[in-house]
Amino acid sequence: MNIGTASEQSRLPVKTIRYYEDIGLVRPLRSENGYRDFSDANLQTLKFLQRARSLGFSIEECRELLSLYEDGNRASADVKAITQSKIVEIDRKIDELKSLKKVLTTLSDACHGDSRPTCPIIDDLAGMGEPDRDMRGRS
What pTM was computed for the model? Predict the structure, then answer.
């Protein structure tokens, strides 16, 4: 199948498929005229990559998972270890986002949100410190 059909069936943009080929994640055959010729196995690889990326795995993690996918003698423990590592990373990101939300909520709560020019959010972004800091002394 051509790259357009592979794109439709894998739900990946053509540009992404070309990128995956460039970095060696998928290796379609080339016809005599130089066009890519994707096999059913290539399509399965593309679908695998699409799903793995949608779950947040990095390109390098996908490369590792793909290697395990293609290895009939793989140990499921290896796959699980990669997945558990991703869960730890996601938990860290969630904690970071919760912290950001707390700071932004505090700043938003401190802002009067009226016609006054003083704004604790702007003060914080400008490095002026405390949300309730007095604006006197600014030029």
Answer: 0.77
Residue 128's pLDDT is 80
Following DSSP, what letter does each residue of 44-90 receive, concatenated?
A: HHHHHHHHHHHTT--HHHHHHHHHHHH-TT--HHHHHHHHHHHHHHH
Token pair recorded at residue 103: 């700071």
Give the span between the Cα atoms of 50 and 102, in whole angstroms: 34
* Cα–Cα distance list, 128 to 32, 125, 134, 135, 138 (Å): 66, 7, 10, 9, 10
Domain annotation for the chain: domains and CATH numbers = 1-56 (1.10.1660.10)
Q: 49 with 62: CB under 8 angstroms?
A: yes
Task: For CA atoms 70, 71, 77, 78, give the dihedral sign.
Answer: negative
Tell me the C-alpha distance between 78 and 76, whole Å: 5
Distance CA 8, CA 43 (A): 10
Q: pLDDT tens digits, residue range 52-86?
A: 999 999 999 999 999 999 999 999 999 999 999 99
Instruction: For residue 29, list its beta bridge partners.
Output: 37
